[in-house]
Amino acid sequence: MGSSKLHQNDANCVWVDGPIIVGAGPSGLATSACLTQQGVPSLILEKSDCLASLWQLRTYDRLKLHLPKQFCELPLLGFPHNFPKYPTQHQFISYLESYAGHFSIQPRFNQAVQSADYDHILGFWRVKTQDSEYISRWLITATGENAEPVIPDIPGINKFNGSVVHTSSYKSGSEFKNQRVLVIGCGNSGMEVSLDLCRYNAIPHMVVRNTVHVLPREMFGFSTFGIAMALIKWFPLWLVDKFLLLVANFILGNTDQVGLRRPKTGPIELKNVTGKTPVLDVGALSQIKSGEIKVMEGVKEITGNGAKFMDGREKEIDSIILATGYKSNVPTWLKGCDFFNKDGMPKTPFPNGWKAEKGLYTVGFTRRGLLGTASDAVKIARDIARQWRPNDSCSNSHVILLKET
User: Fold this and answer.
1) Residue 352 has pLDDT above 80, yes or no
2) Predicted pLDDT of residue 340
3) Helix 26-37 vs helix 369-387: angle between axes, to the nearest 10 degrees?
4) What EC number(s) would the UniProt record show (predicted)?
5) Does residue 400 contact residue 377 with C-beta atoms inside 8 Å?
6) Which CATH number fits domain 150-322: 3.40.50.1820, 2.40.160.60, 3.50.50.60, 3.40.50.300?
7) What tens digit of pLDDT does each residue of 139-193 get?
8) Exposure check for the chain: N or C terminus, fewer CB within 10 A?
9) What is the C-alpha separation between 60 and 88, in angstroms, rounded?
10) Which is nearest to 136 in space by CA: 50, 305, 295, 19?
11) What is the largest CA-CA distance in the chain?
């Protein structure tokens, strides 16, 4: 789709008429669909063998969207009406597959991008995978904030005799029946995995190293996120944060008393500034209060059969689950570009981080979930459509130049 061979004798060199999009997750699909609507072809390169590999290969069985479906739709095509308010992982994947089908999006699978360089002489992007080089005027990075698992360097973890898994490999608590499990991390994944472990008679010990905001998923029958989005249109951010915390304390009680200390910065401001998402409680808090989930301070070191903690306590542990999140992988393959910082996030803050220079665009790096993705995708498609000329393809002189370089 949107590509043609550069030269008959150069089978591994592919000229792409429209943009090259790296990544076939929600961000890549949304951008491709918006481009299609504008009459611009595109080519998605995807390193795995399926759409939305994070959702298909790296999520646990009981995962549901944490936000109501209207905040998770991609542009131009909503969820089916019969989907519940909080779609399951499988429902979300089926939505993405039907989305790709609706817009005739056909990514090239098993194409792991090894490098992407801007050719200053020709004014093109050269994108190399393990078996081809793709060339285009535009490059869209859609690998997102959650491309690679974060594996922290914890002293002694290599000595541990039990199993150590990242949540990207965790499927269900059934694998940990009756075990003492150390869950490192207390974000949405850490909380939800701990809750899942309880259902299989495991004993989760959840490590809470830093402060964390826990909010009820719903307030007065409405989504907390929806309430926040509505209020922020009318009131200053600090006031909305104050309201959310007031109601959260009323519904959940003082979380400090169970070892979950709140940050001084409000939940929305913290999310905007650092990208740290508040935990939306789906039942873990009551298990913490009842002692089913044990809250632990930071880990000092891992031993052969357990862990030592910062407060001096020691515990015997059977397994460790790293609920330590994900990170961007852009610095590993995008070369010669200072638009991204060392963490692989755009240096330009939201809402202007979607466009760089020389035909480079980014989608899915807003720290604002699928709403941010949808907003980026629409802007990128409009911007490229303004530059697009049909039959804008590689002339013979370009072919010769490319053959010589």
Assistant:
1) yes
2) 93
3) 40
4) 1.-.-.-
5) no
6) 3.50.50.60
7) 999 999 999 999 999 999 999 999 999 999 999 999 999 999 999 999 999 999 9
8) C
9) 11
10) 19
11) 73
| 397, amino acid identity | S
| Cα 110 to the center of its chain, rounded Å | 20
SS (H, E, C) the chain: CCEEECCCCCCCEEEECCCEEECCCHHHHHHHHHHHHCCCCCEEECCCCCCCHHHHHCCCCCCECCCCHHHCCECCECCCCCCCCCCEHHHHHHHHHHHHHHCCCCCECCCCCCEEEEECCCCEEEEECCCCEEEECCEEECCCCCCEECCCCCCCHHHCCCEEEEHHHCCCHHHHCCCEEEEECCCHHHHHHHHHHHCCCCEEEEECCCCCCEEECEECCEEHHHHHHHHHCCCCHHHHHHHHHHHHHHHHCCHHHHCCCCCCCCHHHHHHHHCCCCEEECCHHHHHHCCCCEEECCEEEECCCEEEECCCCEEECCEEEECCCEECCHHHHECCCCCECCCCCECCCCCCCCECCCCEEECCCCCCHHHHHHHHHHHHHHHHHHHCCCCCCCCHHHHHHHHHC
12-147+328-401 and 150-322, same CATH topology: yes
Q: Give the start-to-end residue ranges of the domains of the chain.
A: 12-147+328-401, 150-322
Please say whether the beta carbons of 272 and 369 come within 8 A.
Answer: no
85 has a pLDDT exceeding 90 = yes
Average pLDDT over residues 223-242: 95
Cα(22)–Cα(198) distance, rounded to whole angstroms? Answer: 39
Q: What is the CATH number of domain 12-147+328-401?
A: 3.50.50.60
